[in-house]
Amino acid sequence: MNIATLITASRVAVAPIFAYVFIRGYRTLDCDDGGWIYICLALAVLIELSDLLDGTVARARGEVTDFGKVFDPIADSVSRQTVFISFMIVGIIPLWMYLIFFYRDAFMQLLRIVCASSGVVLAARVSGKIKAVLQGVATFAVLGVVWAEQSVIGEWIPNAIWGRPPGFWIMLVTAIYTLLSVIDYIVPNRSLIADMMKKRG
User: Fold this and answer.
1) Rounded to an integer, what distance in angstroms lies between the CA atom of residue 197 and that of residue 5?
2) Distance in angstroms (rounded) separating the CA atoms of residues 20 and 43
3) Is 161 helix (H, G, I), strand (E, B) or coil?
4) CATH number at residue 69
5) Number of folded domains that form the chain
6) How many angstroms separate the CA atoms of 87 and 89, rounded?
7) 196 in helix, strand or coil?
8) Secondary-structure percent of the chain, ordered helix, strand, coil, rounded to 5
């Protein structure tokens, strides 16, 4: 267990704390002093910093390992899915939108495993990196809206836009891109995927 792996593991440990604080705090939105949202913002920062630092630390210290290469995307998925399911539980996003995030990550993990079992490395795509950035930005944007609702400018924030909370529209853009990013992985690798399916068949 090296330092880089510990940094990766930290976001898996922080994510359920975020979920607990966010869900509990959001449900007491009208009768709480709002301190919980600052805790959530701090925890979200820790998650994002972990994602930024673990790879850099691993390369700088010569601690790049096969386990780390597998653990990193899993930790990314677990931490982000925990944040998004928190948004779903309190009603900011609907179930179908959460399922887009969930099944995209599940499909990509399956694709990586199948490729690895055939001795093929699935190359990273720019769309995947953009997706990660968008999801991180969307998380902070939603938290920002929740913070604004509790601040002095809260009266200027509409409770709903076209029947949906403001956070829904923030996450919708991210969900659409997340879905498209799957296509960006499938199309360039379709012959590889087809070959592997034939071998397994």
Assistant:
1) 33
2) 11
3) strand
4) 1.20.120
5) 1
6) 6
7) helix
8) 80, 0, 20
**If you search the block for the tokens 């923030």, which residue do you land on?**
170
Over the stretch 97-156, which tens digit does the pLDDT of each residue have? 999 999 999 988 887 777 776 666 666 678 888 999 999 999 999 999 998 887 756 567
Q: Hey, CA dihedral for 146, 73, 58, 134, is it positive or negative?
A: negative
pLDDT reported for residue 45: 96
User: Contact 73/111 with Cβ under 8 angstroms?
Assistant: no
- Whose tokens are 């790049």? That residue is 64
Burial zone of 117 (CB within 10 Å; 0-12 exposed, 13-18 middle, 19+ buried): exposed
Q: How far is CA 164 from CA 23, 30, 92, 160, 161, in A?
A: 18, 19, 8, 5, 5
Over residues 60-84, the mean pLDDT reads 86
SS3 139: helix
Which two three-digit tokens encode residue 123? 């190359």
pLDDT of amino acid 92: 95
Under the phi-then-psi rule, with left for phi > 0, alpha for psi from -120 to 50, and beta for the rest, what region is 162?
Answer: left
**Predicted structure pTM score:** 0.87
Q: Which domain range does residue 119 map to? A: 3-200
pLDDT tens profile 153-195: 656 777 788 889 999 999 999 999 999 988 888 777 777 667 6
